[in-house]
TrEMBL record:
Basic residues composition-biased segments: 827-844
Protein's recorded name: Fungal-type protein kinase domain-containing protein
SUPFAM superfamilies xrefs: Protein kinase-like (PK-like)
Superkingdom in the source lineage: Eukaryota
InterPro entries (UniProt xref): Kinase-like_dom_sf, Pkinase_fungal
Organism (species): Lentinus tigrinus ALCF2SS1-6
Length: 844
């Protein structure tokens, strides 16, 4: 039967792979306190990468083509398949229970989805109603792996590591995520129709908020699947009452189908499940280029990772074991092949296990970084697994080769790199597909702006050496020597290859202890992550316009750019390096500021942002400090030389009245810095951890988990910008994750919640644009008022229906022909008051 064939193919897949952990064995990126902010960020981002509503039959034919129309002997009839599923329920359980029974229905010869089983996963949680602990309502597992997926530990999230697809359920049709246009709408109507939910904090309509939170949670599950599996794409199903939508997700975005009623059209869901069960694992979305390593290879990997960790950070005993666990999980070592330089040089095999960083957003590069082992050379290297934009002029591996050919110092060396070839063809590559449908006539707007979808190709890059993030520095001596090493790399790249880095950040400078050096020797700084770099013209301006970098460390000029046309210079990169040193000194060197003062300085100086004409702008704190030294003038470090360095470099960068001008040049800075290191006494130790409160995503950022998407000219938004709900900050801890050479380990660009008392520097562009913005009338309250009236009208209509005594529920939905999407903005009366304190759609 097809089921056995399907089961055999599943052995090609790698399931339930490790996720990044900190030194305390906590999974990075899943902290409970940040769950609401993450989900709301997912919702906001989804407006820019979602396409729909795609006709259901077209969805099936495009993504699950039926190549065996005659081989349907094992398929159950769809007649009345879901008649036991109510049109609406008081809770999700009212839908789940009969739906699971229908999905798993089978006879001795026929079944709904051969080779797979559907299980209630939502109840398998230690706190099934708490955000961050919640799991999808229903998961589909391969028969061979269901026991492993449903182990005894409810705290485990292995279900998402084995899920072939999942179904999320809201109890009522009015809880639909989207609002389809009227049947038969022409292309012009569709082009202007908005299917996504609108949200404004002033609305405060619980039913709308509930649906928005539920969509954010749905995307969070998908993102976690991509972290726990090796995926090219993934399918999900959402139900609002008995109305369903099909989803296909990849690293470019999402395609969502039209809504359909599984009671009235059971054949559509049945067809989806049948085709899903009969197709290959590749069509179901698995990346089969990753294989499990042998026991012999795992032993090699474990031994070499242990040795490298001991060399880099000099730990022993239990501390060493915990450090090694950041790179290795027993029984979870994988192997991949990566092409060597030149097509004729073949491939080399690399072993890897637990990533040190993983992307926090679904759409984008999806970067994962690993300490890996070069099997042929028996050496530890870094592997960067990412989905690069197809539009790149130059691969990062080629950039590194050019830098080395030009003898640029303090940059990683290239081992191997290349696009990932499809497992089914030697001439095709693993690419995203979402972008191929962006211009089709069925596409409607999801948000206020048109979707921005990039075509991406899977790419792997192998680099050396490995090391630890700059935020692991031991004292002022290591901090200022390592950043000087990075400064030399910047100057070398400019002078020898006419290239700017454009993403100078604390995550992109790593500390490396060279082999043969003393255990307590000073580590060398390497400047990594050159994927956003750009050549310059004769005037020293980057050929690529717009922002590219990490929000906290961008120069004032780039943060105030609203046009996307500004071009960076070496002075902008130097300014970013100044902020890197200040950032590290503020958070991890002993000084006289209280934790509260550190928190306020961090938020206002590094994170502040606002919006002008829909574009994020910032730099107010930096501009204020440049003008008056507002944030740095009163800092007294235990190591006085640190303040000498900061004051001098800031005077070079932004000389105050009466100070000597013209010193903000590479030569002047180099002369001062090199002399400073030769003459000043710097503490070798003395690292401290200031317990500060920064943004809600700080713990994730400090663990080097990021969006992996640079801020480009046409998308200049801080990636961790304020959510629609203005999530509150959470503390920075000292569980800093290591970063390694070649990793895209920058902290994601982000913006903090605007602080009312944040300084407004004199005569800055940001101040002027804010004033102009306040002068213009805002038409949104009028649109908002009409939307609230529509929502209230629909709520009243829903609540006026008579209840059905026998069931205890309200009467069924309107007669067929009324799309659930048409009332998706209506009041979700049955959700009112549920889920209090959880910040997500109710788990019922």
């Amino acid at each position: 039967m097809a089921a056995s064939s399907s089961s055999a193919h599943l052995t090609e897949c790698v399931y339930n792979v490790p996720m990044p952990q900190d030194m305390n064995s906590h999974t990075v990126g899943l902290d409970i306190n940040g769950a609401l902010a993450r989900n709301l960020k997912h919702f906001a981002e989804s407006k820019l990468f979602t396409l729909g509503p795609m006709p259901v039959q077209a969805f099936l034919d495009e993504f699950l083509p039926d190549s065996n129309l005659d081989g349907r002997g094992g398929m159950l009839s769809s007649d009345g398949a879901f008649s036991s599923v109510p049109k609406r329920g008081q809770s999700s359980a009212d839908i789940c229970k009969p739906l699971i029974a229908a999905l798993n229905q089978s006879t001795s010869r026929k079944s709904r989805c051969p080779g797979f089983v559907f299980e209630d996963v939502a109840s398998r949680s230690v706190q099934p109603r708490r955000l961050g602990h919640m799991k999808p309502h229903i998961c589909c597992f391969a028969n061979d792996f269901v026991d492993e997926a449903l182990g005894p530990d409810k705290a485990s999230r292995a279900e998402l590591g084995f899920a072939e697809l999942f179904l999320e359920i809201q109890p009522d049709p009015t809880c639909d995520f989207y609002n389809d246009p009227a049947p038969g709408a022409n292309a012009e109507t569709r082009a202007s129709h908005q299917i996504g939910q609108d949200y404004d904090p002033e609305d405060d309509v619980p039913q709308v908020l509930e649906s928005i939170k539920a969509l954010g949670q749905h995307i969070a599950y998908v993102q976690e699947v991509f972290c726990r599996q090796f995926r090219i794409h993934f399918f999900t199903v959402s139900l609002a009452g008995s109305r369903a939508r099909l989803f296909r997700w990849d690293r470019s975005g999402c395609i969502v189908s039209e809504s359909f009623d599984i009671r009235e059209h059971p054949e559509l869901l049945c067809e989806f499940l049948w085709r899903f069960s009969q197709t290959s694992v590749i069509t179901r979305g698995h990346d089969t280029t990753v294989k499990y390593a042998s026991a012999e290879h795992e032993d090699i990997f474990c031994k070499l990772i242990d040795e490298e960790t001991r060399l880099q950070i000099g730990l022993t005993g239990e501390e060493l074991r915990r450090a090694v666990a950041q790179h290795y999980e027993p029984g979870k070592v994988m192997i991949v092949q990566v092409p060597m330089e030149g097509a004729t040089l073949g491939h080399r095999q690399f072993l890897f296990s637990r990533p040190i960083m993983s992307a926090a957003s679904l759409a984008g590069r999806g970067t994962r970084g690993y300490w890996a082992v070069d099997l042929s050379r028996r050496m530890v290297v870094f592997m960067k697994d990412t989905w690069r934009p197809r539009s790149l002029d130059e691969l990062e591996g080629d950039t590194l080769r050019h830098l080395h050919d030009a003898d640029v110092g303090n940059v990683p060396f290239l081992v191997a790199h290349g696009d990932v070839i499809s497992a089914t063809s030697r001439t095709e590559y693993q690419t995203t597909k979402t972008e191929e449908y962006a211009s089709l006539p069925w596409v409607c707007r999801v948000g206020d702006k048109a979707a921005h979808i990039s075509r991406r190709r899977h790419y792997r890059l192998i680099l050396g050496p490995v090391g630890y993030d700059l935020r692991y520095f031991q004292g002022a001596d290591e901090l200022l020597h390592a950043t000087y090493d990075a400064f030399i790399a910047m100057l070398d790249a400019l002078r020898k290859d006419s290239r700017l880095h454009r993403d100078i950040s604390a995550g992109n400078v790593i500390l490396v202890r060279e082999r043969g050096s003393e255990p307590d020797s000073r580590r060398r700084g390497y400047l990594i992550d050159w994927e956003s770099s750009s050549h310059v013209d004769d005037a020293g301006l980057a050929l690529k316009p717009g922002r590219a970098g990490t929000w906290e460390f961008m120069s004032i000029k780039m943060l105030s750019d609203v046009t996307g046309n500004e071009r960076q210079t070496i002075e902008d990169d130097m300014e970013s390096l100044l902020y890197v040193v200040l950032y590290c000194a503020l958070l991890w060197l002993p000084h006289n500021l209280s934790d509260q003062e550190v928190s306020e300085t961090y938020t206002r100086f590094f994170e502040f942002s606002t919006r002008h004409s829909g574009v994020a702008v910032g730099g107010d704190g930096k501009a204020s400090n440049a003008y008056s030294r507002r944030y740095t003038r009163d800092i007294a470090f235990d190591c006085p030389a640190v303040k000498v360095w900061l004051d001098t470099i800031m005077d070079y960068c932004s000389p105050r009245e009466g100070a000597e001008k013209g010193k903000w040049t590479p030569d002047h800075v180099d002369a001062f810095w090199s002399d400073f290191l030769n003459t000043q006494a710097l503490d070798r130790r003395g690292r401290v951890a200031h317990h500060t409160s920064t943004s809600s995503s700080a713990s994730t950022a400090d663990s080097i988990t990021h969006l992996s998407t640079s801020v480009h000219a046409h998308d200049p938004t801080p990636a961790r910008g304020r959510s629609p709900f203005h999530a509150l900050p959470s503390p920075v801890t000292d569980t800093r994750r290591p970063a390694v050479a070649g990793a895209a380990t920058k902290r994601t660009t982000r913006a903090s919640t605007a602080v009312e008392s944040a300084p407004r520097p004199k005569r800055t562009r940001t101040t002027v644009t804010q004033a102009r913005r306040r002068e213009r009338p805002d038409p949104s309250p009028l649109r908002r008022s009409q939307r609230i009236q529509d929502q209230q009208s629909r709520k009243n209509s829903e609540e006026s229906r008579p209840a059905t005594r026998s069931s205890g529920r309200k009467a069924n939905a309107p007669a067929s022909g009324t799309r659930a999407g048409q009332s998706s903005r209506g009041a979700r009366g049955r959700g009112r008051g549920r889920g209090r304190g959880r910040g997500a759609a109710p788990r019922k």
